[in-house]
């Protein structure tokens, strides 16, 4: 065994240095790999811990924010929580993907809304149903109770055109009668009035009309939603708010139902419920049940007036009678106060409906009167048919005469130009040489050349006819009268005798000179004064 160890030691002693280095460096490489794996795992754990810390901080902030909203709604002293250091503005804080801005809008809290917007919270962020913060604001009555919706709508004004997953706008959400609202009709009318009043000030009438008539995925407009709520809850305030802004009633949804049909059904149901009442064609009359209850209570409480104002002869001698009298009298008085309040509310609703109807009638009458005045003015400017026909015939005759005259003048000028060129050729070449050249040229030109020249001549003549017609048309638009003659006389008077003879040929040059002398600041053309008097 010893010799073997010795031989092994000698063999190891005879090994080269690179092999020794390689063997020695192998554990170091494995150690480096382990260190890389450890550092990578450490960074991953650190990143996961940071994400968990961020989620934990945002969850705590969401809980604190909800507690703050709850305490502030109960009129308790509450401190508004501050966002975490690494705050993510659009981080969801509940299972419906609502952000802090959704909750702040739902609660109508202006301070939290502005704080979140300063932290770059998106006004178009959506929840799981595709609803924006503005839609969430009109889904609850907090903005109505706090009277903060005008400011909330201005903060989210740029998102009024957004639609949720069902294609509904904020107008659809505001017109929807929700079952959990005790004062739903009043809040819906409040939201609709503020939205439409602000849009009327900011948008063009055509754009506002298009937004009013926008349809969701089922083809329903906001007026469809309000009409359905009016038919179910017997509330017509939202209908009045939309119809007062000229919302279209003839648009049919995917089921083919128009708002006109729904209003007709509402009127029929009103007639069936109260056949003894005065019939009305408007769906905005007060509730017939309330009127019936008022009459019923009034007939049943005729003896209550005697109880409130007893006669001097009727005196309660027993203690039981006095006790009953003392307890019944306040109840009767309270019922009378309720009846008076109901009567005032009915009268106010009637007055509001009448004022709205009068306003619509006045606007319609004003538009009708304006249209009639416009039609009358147009009819006054029109000439009789005989005079118009005669004037048109005279104008056409004059136009043809001018066109014939211009064609004749151009023909004469062309003949004169051709004669001048022929005369020049005859003078230059001589009679005999000219005849020889003409014979040679005629003999060298074939049929195709003649045809090409004829076609070119036809094209040139066509262009000439078109230019002549354009010239006559331009003259008819410009008009010829004494003013043109006066301008010509003025220009001839300002020019020399030699230049005045070539006035027509130098008009373009004179116009360019006048444009160069035009005063840019004043916008007027300045003519150089002449010493000679004008005629």
Automatic annotation (TrEMBL):
<protein>
    <submittedName>
        <fullName>Uncharacterized protein</fullName>
    </submittedName>
</protein>
<dbReference type="Pfam" id="PF00023">
    <property type="entry name" value="Ank"/>
</dbReference>
<dbReference type="GO" id="GO:0033309">
    <property type="term" value="C:SBF transcription complex"/>
</dbReference>
<feature type="region of interest" description="Disordered">
    <location>
        <begin position="270"/>
        <end position="289"/>
    </location>
</feature>
<dbReference type="InterPro" id="IPR036770">
    <property type="entry name" value="Ankyrin_rpt-contain_sf"/>
</dbReference>
<dbReference type="GO" id="GO:0030907">
    <property type="term" value="C:MBF transcription complex"/>
</dbReference>
<feature type="region of interest" description="Disordered">
    <location>
        <begin position="1"/>
        <end position="52"/>
    </location>
</feature>
<dbReference type="GO" id="GO:0045944">
    <property type="term" value="P:positive regulation of transcription by RNA polymerase II"/>
</dbReference>
<feature type="repeat" description="ANK">
    <location>
        <begin position="218"/>
        <end position="254"/>
    </location>
</feature>
<dbReference type="InterPro" id="IPR051642">
    <property type="entry name" value="SWI6-like"/>
</dbReference>
<keyword id="KW-0040">ANK repeat</keyword>
<dbReference type="InterPro" id="IPR002110">
    <property type="entry name" value="Ankyrin_rpt"/>
</dbReference>
<feature type="repeat" description="ANK">
    <location>
        <begin position="96"/>
        <end position="128"/>
    </location>
</feature>
């Amino acid at each position: 065994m010893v010799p073997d160890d010795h031989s092994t030691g000698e063999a190891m002693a005879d090994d080269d240095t690179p092999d020794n280095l390689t063997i020695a460096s192998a554990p170091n490489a494995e150690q480096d790999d382990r260190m890389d794996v450890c550092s990578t795992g450490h960074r991953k754990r650190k990143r996961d811990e940071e994400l968990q810390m961020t989620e934990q901080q945002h969850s705590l902030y969401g809980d604190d924010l909800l507690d703050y909203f709850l305490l502030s709604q109960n009129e308790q002293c509450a401190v508004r929580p501050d966002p975490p250091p690494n705050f993510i503005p659009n981080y969801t804080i509940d299972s419906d993907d609502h952000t802090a801005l959704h909750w702040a809008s739902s609660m109508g809290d202006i301070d939290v809304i502005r704080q979140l917007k300063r932290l770059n919270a998106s006004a178009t962020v959506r929840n799981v149903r595709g609803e924006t913060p503005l839609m969430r604001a009109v889904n609850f009555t907090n903005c109505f109770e706090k009277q903060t919706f005008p400011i909330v709508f201005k903060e989210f004004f740029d998102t009024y055109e957004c639609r949720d997953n069902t294609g509904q706008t904020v107008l659809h959400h505001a017109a929807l009668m929700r079952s959990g609202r005790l004062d739903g009709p009043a809040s819906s009318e409040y939201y609709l009035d503020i939205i439409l009043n602000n849009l009327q000030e900011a948008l063009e009438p055509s754009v506002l009309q298009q937004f009013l008539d926008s349809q969701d995925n089922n083809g329903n407009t906001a007026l469809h939603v309000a009409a359905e709520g009016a038919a179910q809850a017997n509330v017509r305030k939202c209908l009045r708010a939309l119809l007062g802004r000229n919302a279209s009633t003839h648009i049919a949804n995917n089921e083919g139902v128009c708002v006109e049909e729904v209003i007709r059904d509402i009127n029929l149901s009103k007639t069936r419920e109260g056949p003894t009442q005065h019939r009305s064609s408007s769906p905005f009359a007060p509730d017939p049940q309330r009127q019936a209850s008022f009459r019923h209570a009034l007939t049943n409480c005729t003896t209550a007036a005697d109880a409130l104002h007893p006669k001097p002869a009727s005196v309660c001698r027993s203690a039981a009678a006095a006790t009953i009298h003392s307890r019944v009298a306040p109840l009767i008085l309270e019922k009378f106060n309720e009846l008076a309040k109901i009567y005032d509310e009915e009268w106010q609703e009637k007055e509001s409906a009448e004022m709205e109807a009068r306003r619509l009638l006045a606007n319609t009458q004003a538009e009708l009167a304006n249209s009639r005045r416009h039609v009358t003015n147009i009819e006054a400017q029109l000439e009789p048919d005989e005079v118009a026909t005669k004037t048109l015939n005279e104008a056409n005759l004059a136009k043809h005469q001018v066109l014939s005259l211009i064609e004749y003048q151009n023909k004469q000028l062309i003949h004169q130009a051709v004669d001048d060129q022929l005369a020049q050729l005859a003078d230059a070449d001589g009679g005999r040489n000219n005849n020889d050249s003409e014979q040679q040229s005629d003999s060298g030109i074939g049929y195709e050349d003649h045809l090409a020249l004829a076609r070119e001549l036809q094209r040139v003549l066509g262009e000439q006819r078109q230019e002549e017609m354009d010239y006559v048309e331009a003259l008819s638009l410009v008009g010829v009268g004494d003013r043109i003659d006066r301008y010509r006389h003025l220009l001839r008077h300002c020019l020399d005798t030699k230049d005045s003879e070539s006035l027509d040929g130098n008009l373009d040059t004179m116009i360019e000179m006048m444009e160069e002398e035009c005063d840019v600041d004043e916008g007027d053309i300045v003519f150089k004064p002449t010493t000679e008097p004008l005629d």
